[in-house]
Amino acid sequence: MTDTGNGAPEVTDGAQLTPEEKAAKFAELAQRVRSMGGQGPEPGASAPREPVRQPSGPQAPVADATGGGGPAAPAAPAAAAAAVPHRPHGDALRATAEVLTAGGAPPELAAAAVAEFGEEAPQRLREDPWAVLGLPGVRPEHADGFARELLGPEAGPGDERRARALVPWLLEQAALRGHSALELAEVAAGLDRLRMPDPAAAIQAAVQDGRVLPFQEELTGAEAHAAGDEEDEAPTRTLLALEGLAMAEDSLAEKLLQLMATFVPGEDADGTEDADEATDADATGADAADAEQTPVAPGPAAWAAAAESAPSSSATALIKAVAEHALVLHTGGEAARAEPAALVTAARGLGLRAWAATWTDQGRNSLAALAGTGTGAGAAVVTLAELLSGTAGPGRAPDGSLALDLLVVLDAPLLDVELAATVLESLADGTRLVLSGDPGQLWSAGPGRFFADLLAAKVCPAVASRTPDFGPIGELVSGVGIGELQPVEAPDKEVVILTAKDAGEAVHRAIQLLSDSIPRALGIPVEQVVLLTPGHGGPAGTRALNAAAKARLNPGPGRFGGFDPGDRVVDSPAPGVTRPARVLDGDATGLHLEYPDGSRRTVPPAEAARLRHGWALTVHQALGRRWPGAVVVLPEDAAPALTRQWVYTAFGRGERHLSVVHAAGPALAQAVAGRPAQPRTTRLRAVLAENAAASAY
Hints:
Elements: H1 19-35, H2 78-82, H3 90-102, H4 110-117, H5 121-127, H6 140-151, H7 160-176, E1 182-183, H8 184-193, H9 199-209, E2 212-218, H10 221-227, E3 236-242, H11 243-261, H12 275-279, H13 283-290, H14 300-308, H15 313-324, E4 327-331, H16 338-349, E5 354-358, H17 361-371, E6 381-383, H18 384-389, E7 406-409, H19 417-425, E8 432-437, H20 450-457, E9 462-464, H21 471-481, E10 495-499, H22 503-522, E11 529-533, H23 542-553, E12 568-571, E13 579-587, E14 590-594, E15 600-603, E16 612-613, E17 616-618, E18 627-634, H24 644-651, E19 654-662, H25 667-674, H26 684-695
Parallel strand pairs: 4-8, 4-9, 5-6, 5-7, 7-8, 10-19, 11-17, 11-18, 18-19
Antiparallel strand pairs: 1-3, 2-3, 12-13, 12-16, 13-14, 14-15
Helix pairs in contact: 1-9, 3-4, 3-5, 7-9, 8-9, 11-19, 11-26, 14-15, 15-16, 16-17, 20-26, 21-24, 22-23, 24-25
């Protein structure tokens, strides 16, 4: 047995299947899935599952990005991120380190292995060396080498243990790119690239293992037309999904339909509800409703009066929709956030326990100002993390559900399927839920297209705001949203487009804008300007930009773990959570940070490695935030990262000023016109349709 270029053992000619044999095996496997009904769990079945994650830290999660000059990849599925490994026993650690060393793997992985497999980690790795693929940073070529060292000639490429590890690994990698499922053919192609001699058998082994679930999904619309199946039977596709993600999407569909099915609108008392009195109720009534009392159920007349008092026609439409429906979607740009704010104010005026949740603390503060509730005790606006953790918000009812009647979730496109499932599972039956967001922005960091799939499924009313984002930046972003990149008039230099011949010149111009041009010409302080770029690596990624910004703005030797007092940093207290901060000082206890809201925190030395300089961010890291000034840097290698969605999100991060340093040539216009978004394969839309059809009988 010899080694191949990708680290997999070489497959002899006799072990190879012909393309025709592989096709036959896949057809047989797909038919077997169809005969199973095409579903893992039965719809509505309460299969046991690991609890989905909750965001941690003082603000909601924001996507991180991978290195390289390509697109910033979504953060790892946070079910793993939320797990807190226990402290392994010393004997197990030593024994595991010995096994890892024997297989040529870093012994530093011992703690992760014991956290993953428990005290039996040494035995597990010896019996199934490919299990090492489940540890952080391990790739298939590493696992193959580890297996060869431990098993010798027994480490064949078609080993069932290898198959059981590779199929979930491929799906986990897809989840990093936002997919909650993959088509059977895509998984098979991935196994082919990893020199799996019989991909169909490998997939079947992984399905039998229970970590991967198969689903048969009927194609509709353009997908059905593309399939070209003219037979009476509708064309279908076979999907594979990790068990946790499959359960999350099934749970989401079930709970959404359950909310709608259990909703009972209020009635006017004797048909003569005093609407004026209900509308004029002050915050005292809302505070009383937050206590344990008989639930308030305003009737149509009270809702109608509240809607008529709304500050805009779009807010009126939103309030009317919420009066009659349990689940309502709301779409619009930054200016449209005033409409959910008006809804919360109106609902609390009617005596409902109404709360809004945002993605970041910045979003919370701006929405609270619009709603007029403030951010202190009794405020009606919290971050999503605060809401779910209970550090702020309405608290929990005796049954564990959130003690509220109406929940408005802003920035809804940023919810991945696991986080969305957590939110839905926290709501009591009959609760009103409004999901609001800008459908043109980037999707969630984690897997799924929760908000986009809900819009496409059309299972509930959707209110589209008519409130435009004004000014040159709003005009530019609105054009990008419909696929047009047109020059805009900017008499006060609200939008500036600069060209650069290469990445080096792009970095130079960006630093000049950050440190001098924007503060001097527009009066926006350096601290209120952000640099945005597609990825971390490359000659104009965040690393290069941050290094140049530090050298220009705050040079120093990096006395405290590479940082100096005055450095701008990004703090990630948990994977997927991004918080801008400033270094105050450092000592033996750690690095002392100050956050934009004035709060302070000391990061222990053991955790300081996760800090990064923060003058420059990826656009994924910037989600949920805006700055008075934004400089978007597009190096010549940015083309793979650029989509209309990315450009729309990046350009919208600036409130007063946007500079674009452009070295990407025609790739920018091509992305805006012809690449709406990076594709994602999900199941939620189909599951919603299936469950809705089943509930109709």
